[in-house]
Amino acid sequence: MTEIRAARLHAHGEPLVVETIELDSPAQDEVRVELEFGGVNPVDQYTAAGRVSPDGPLPRTLGAEAAGTADGRLVLVAGEGLGGSRDGVWASAANVPEAALVPIPEEVSPGAAAAMGIAGLTALNCVRALAQVSAEDRVLVLGASGGVGSMIVSLAAAAGATVWGQTGSEHKAGAISDSGADRVLVAGPEALAEPLRDFGPTVVFDPLGGDFVAPAISALVPRGRFVSFGVSAGAQVTFNLQELYRKTVTLFGYGGMQLGRDERRAGLEAALEALRAGEIKVRIDEVLPLEAVNGAFDRLQDRRVAGKLLLALS
Predict the structure, then answer these.
(1) Structural domain containing residue 132
(2) Which whole number is the average pLDDT over 249-264?
(3) Is 221 helix (H, G, I), strand (E, B) or coil?
(4) What is the pTM of this model?
(5) Same domain for 60 and 143?
């Protein structure tokens, strides 16, 4: 038995409790990982509220992605039900399935790697697998200051596309520019139509939903692509369906929980390689102590984050 510190969910909708627990020896198919950084994502908040993995065991350690050391090697830890159907990785150490480990390239820092398990994987799959962004594209990234949005900006820019990023906060504009955006729109949905009329995006990436969908689809050029990967501004949307079919717009939805083991691993390896090559830029807003995990949730809820929040686990 080993004593560790962990952020534990005791009841859905209640604050997490950071406490000392005993960690058993790894099972036959598990590996002990000494953890250094954990990424904080909206899905972790949904899990704590019971909106995701409501039937998972209680109490349990949350956290679906982290970076640390296993058998002397730096590894990214993600997938395999971590934080959902089994204990997660917001702890100083964890026993995880071997299949959840992906080696981190030597040139990549553990902090940046810890952001690849969810946000980096989502950004890479949306940009490359779904939209297949190229240098000929004009890309609009809604919610471009977020953890995924900022990485999408950098990946699209690395592909040679012209990239515009949207945010509702003036103080986040600089972070979006630093990620590689050619122009930043500080605007809500009602103010998007006019500037987008001349831009004519060929691709829109949308983690927001709500009232942002209609003006984005109106702005898309014929045969444009619209990629939805979140609904933080609202799941119920209204738009003119004629604009979709008359322009032969392709509508993609991305849900990372639908990925199979082999798909996830290949995507994580590709995301880490893109990070090593400088094609994905990770903006770390702040590294918080594990005891501040509930405050991290508050910041996500209030949209007071530009990039990624990490938890210091060691």
Answers:
(1) 122-256
(2) 95
(3) coil
(4) 0.96
(5) no
